[in-house]
Amino acid sequence: MGLSFDPDTVSLPVGHFIGGKLIAAEGAIEMRRPSDGKTYAASPVAGVDMVDHAVASAKAALKASNWGGVRPRERTRALQAWADLIEAEAETLARIEALCSTRPVGQLVAGDIAITAEQIRFFAEFADKEGSELVPTDDTSLGMIISEPYGVVGAITPWNFPISMAGWKLGPALAAGNAVVLKPSEMTPFSAVYMAELAVRAGLPAGLINVVLGDGPTTGTALTGHSEIAKVSFTGSTRAGSAIMENVARTGVKPMTLELGGKSPQIVFADTDLDKAATAIAGSVTFNAGQACVAGTRLIVERSVADRLTATILEKMKAVRPGPTWDDATQYSPVISERQRARVDGIVRAAIEAGGECLTGGCVMDSPGYFYEPTLIADVDQANPAIVEEIFGPVLTVQTFKTEDEALALSSHPTYGLASGLFTSDLSRTVRFARKLEAGTVWVNRYSRSRDHILPTGGYKRSGIGKDLGREAYLANRRTKSVLISL
Ligand code: NAD
């Protein structure tokens, strides 16, 4: 059995979490389990008043606890206690997450949850190590750059890795001395509510983390446009990122971190270990059924080895074991919703109509859940819909090149620049490509993050503004004030 569980026995925290309490509200959005399509809950939608209540609670908590002004080590210790409790409660958290989302329970406890707890600890350590500085001036004055928290940060997260995405936002914002009002995706909100409950149980001041449930147009717009939200931190699609920029510009200027979409290339040269490359490439497009912002969905391979590499990738893509997210043997996830699966299928069809050759997959799986066959499409040009669109599903395209220049030209995407992969054993070429690739991340001879949380992540082009993770994410949650004293 291991971590497997019966999905009908899980109790969910359905409600907003404000001021340290769960606030039940009438359900408005019907929710279905991606693994079997069964309706399991209805999520409330917070309107302007509920968002206002959450922001007011955050402000009151900051004032009552002096969270931004206490000895920084106290923030470190409190956040570490929260991380410890998240790990202690990992199985309960994993059941909530696996029930609602596309994340298999077998990947959650040692994966998403352990990583998130460690990232919270990582950010907690910045609290008493990064700070203000004295700067060089002449000896008649004293110059200082004082670093301060913003106040209340408004965070919005997507559905693809609900726990991890909440951790990316909450960890640095809280360590930096802010309070947070978080709006998780309307499709997967309950793990964030449980994380907020755990924070209070671990001793964090009630009201420091508030979670409002709801959709983008109602709840998201109320949050990003709220006059007391000092900074917006968003992860999601480029389309929603644009809408948020517009709303923020209309309602008042404020700083924003935007982590948006991607369409990342993986470039393979003949001089690499092809079997290792195939494992990394197939893994990146089947992991979470391709629903990852950094999924390496565009294979660009040297022509002389294209057939060999493609055949190996095909084998590996077909070998993944689909199953419900509550079965701990499951390797391959469903797509989040029927609507998203229809979108994936629509783009695949358009890609084939535009001349692409479907080498495997290209159809929904025979299952009550929203599963889609791992799909490989060859013969695509730069204008093919499967190249242009972020599909956010298990679809890999194959393009070939003869020269480095061709490889670079194919790798550049008109819209996105989130991540990229390069497989080669040539050191000089590695450096040339690392300099020229237009992406916020370059992975060489691998295609995945490590557990080195110090490496920031973020996009070039319309893949975003600013960074999550790393020192940059901590600093993005502080603002600086220049002080000059005449002596
Ligand atoms: P989405 O943009 O549809 O929704 C993301 C969040 O934004 C949700 O909580 C949603 O309710 C909210 N939202 C939507 N419209 C809004 C609006 N006008 N105002 C305020 N909030 C709004 O994205 P999704 O479908 O949930 O997630 C998939 C997308 O997220 C993909 O494009 C993926 O690449 C991106 N993503 C990016 C990263 C990264 O680090 N760059 C990480 C994960 C996911």
TrEMBL record:
Pfam family membership, one: Aldedh
Keywords attached to this entry: Oxidation, Oxidoreductase
Xref: InterPro entries: Ald_DH/histidinol_DH (IPR016161), Ald_DH_C (IPR016163), Ald_DH_CS_GLU (IPR029510), Ald_DH_N (IPR016162), Aldehyde_DH_dom (IPR015590)
GO MF entries: aldehyde dehydrogenase (NAD+) activity
Class in the EC hierarchy, top level: oxidoreductase
SUPFAM superfamilies from the UniProt entry: ALDH-like
Assigned EC number: 1.2.1.3
Keyword match Transferase: no
Family stated for the protein in its record: Belongs to the aldehyde dehydrogenase family.
Record protein name field: Aldehyde dehydrogenase (NAD+)
